[in-house]
Design brief:
By secondary structure, the protein is an alpha+beta fold. It contains three helices and ten strands.
Amino acid sequence: MTHHVEADTPLRRRGRLATRRFTGLARPGTAGAALAVAALALAACGSSTPSSATTSTSSGSATSSSTTSGAAASPGTSAAANATVKTASSAQFGTILVNSGGMALYTYGPDHGGALSKCTGACLQAWPALTVPAGTTPTLASGVAGTLATSKQADGTLQVTYDGKLLYTFLSDTSPGQVTGNGVAMFSVAKVSTAASGTAVSPTTTAASGGGYQY
């Protein structure tokens, strides 16, 4: 059998050389090195992720602490603001008693310190009683002398008393700081008790003319 041998031309020699170079690039050792580099790159990315998460968690913890700190401070502030009875300064009457909203509180002369209010009907509409829900204990602002309690009225409401005096607000007082009911229809603005020989003195009730109010 006759074998045909192709002539070894310069073009064929260049082709064989290119094939050997390509095969060298794909040698196992070289491929392994490439894989190792890729693995290192992935490891580097993986290590950066936990670091970032740790920073985020630390920042979150700091925010949480700040919030907790703020919440811890708020109960005292809230308790003072929401006290059933607290005090306010009046240019005309000095230190007076006010409700949680800052509205002036009054006492009614005809009550005479009794448990049941003498202010009923139209009187009660103009002078709403200071009350608290059943099961609630009225609170007195910190540092204010005197004692708060409640007295159950004929309609079942619990009217707040200060040193035994029933307390009321006045419909004509439309904003904190107003004291328009003192001396009207035998109502007097309620003031803080003063201590005399360790005994609390009830707020003074000033008898006055009806001032146009007849109950």
